[in-house]
Design goal:
This protein has helices at about 1-5, 10-25, 50-65, 80-90, 100-110, 145-155, 170-180, 195-205, 215-220, 270-285, 285-295, 305-325; strands at about 40-45, 70-75, 95-100, 120-135, 160-165, 185-190, 210, 225-230, 255-265, 295-300. The protein is α/β, with parallel strands linked by helices and about 325 residues long. It comes from Bradyrhizobium erythrophlei.
């Protein structure tokens, strides 16, 4: 949080002004002319989901800072590959951006051949926020804690089931990581999204889900689901009573989703810096704070280098889980 505030402070705006002056004196294109027209953020998911909501809120706040409209273009398909490829082949001028997510870090391990290079074809802009999943069970279940879940799984190897949003999704990999680190055997049951999985969890057809906060929070509040833990590194301010999976019995466990802006490789550094500062400011807005509570976000708003390192680390971490679990996308 401190980094974001520092980067949007008057000091950093002074640094940006000095950079503009130096750019002008050196004969490089002046950043002052960017943006001259509408900016487009490609969201590689259908409208209405969490990524769409985060992108639209961020774009609305960035518009105020940049002084130009920002269009959200939804390009779902092939597990985010369609939208991601569209940005990879776009002109590197700062007018076409990608809202990258957890899927971008796992796709290289799930797909033998991608139509783009996840590192060479993109330039990191800003790590906007991280998010976590929440472990939920049926309120009638005897499982009331992570310790109970582990005990039940060990007593009935392979018989307990956990719902996923499909192979390689955050709900799936969070469950696979839990199996690996807790040394238990749970059976994954894939669904076409969170809603049908939660419906079956409420109905007693499956035993547990490592689902998103947005999909589960209202049902937890109404008593239709029981939350037993969060998958984040630290406890969430939104659910202070819930332990993390790590502190509840699986030391070192953490499974996060995230949101980060990328531009096509070759985008001028001064344009990237301008976008980064705008995103950092937008992520500190009141509108984004309200969204963060609903979506279970931890706002970070970090610089390009931080997103680049985080992306590499996430890619390597999930590569091991995917390989050991033998996960494949058909």
């Amino acid at each position: 949080m401190g980094s974001a505030l520092t980067r949007s402070s008057p000091f950093w705006r002074l640094v940006l002004a000095v950079a503009l002056l130096l750019a002008a004196l050196s004969g490089r294109p002046a950043l002052a002319i960017y943006p001259e027209r509408m900016v487009r953020i490609v969201v590689p998911f259908a409208p209405g989901g969490g990524t769409d909501a985060v992108s639209r809120t961020l774009a609305h706040e960035m518009e105020k800072d940049l002084g130009k409209s920002i269009l959200i273009e939804n390009k779902p398909g092939a597990g985010t590959i369609v939208g991601t490829q569209a940005v990879a082949t776009s002109k590197p001028d700062g007018y076409t951006l990608l809202m990258g997510t957890f899927a971008n870090a796992v796709n290289p391990s799930l797909n033998a051949k991608l139509p783009y290079d996840p590192h060479k074809d993109f330039a990191a802009v800003a790590l906007v926020a991280r998010s976590f999943n929440i472990v939920v069970v049926n309120p009638k279940s005897p499982v009331r804690s992570i310790e109970d879940l582990i005990a039940a799984a060990k007593a009935n190897p392979g018989k307990l089931t956990f719902g996923t949003f499909g192979p390689g999704t955050s709900a799936h990999l969070a469950g696979e990581l839990f199996k690996d680190m807790a040394k238990v055997n749970l059976t994954a049951v894939p669904y076409k999204g969170a809603a049908p999985g939660i419906t079956d969890l409420i109905g007693g057809q499956i035993d547990v889900m490592f689902t998103t906060v947005a999909s589960a929070a209202p049902l937890v509040e109404s008593g239709q689901l029981r939350a037993i833990a969060v998958t984040s590194v630290e406890r969430s301010p939104a659910f202070p009573q819930l332990p993390t999976v790590a502190e509840a019995g699986v030391p070192g466990y953490a499974a996060e989703s995230w949101y980060g802006l990328f531009a096509p490789a070759g985008t001028p550094r001064d344009v990237i810096d301008r976008l980064n500062m705008s995103a950092a400011s937008a992520a500190q807005s009141e509108a984004f704070r309200k969204l963060s509570i609903n979506e279970g976000l931890v706002t970070v708003a970090l610089p390009p280098e931080a997103l680049d390192r985080y992306f590499h680390d996430e890619e390597e971490r999930w590569r091991r889980v995917i390989s050991e679990a033998g996960i494949k996308v058909e």
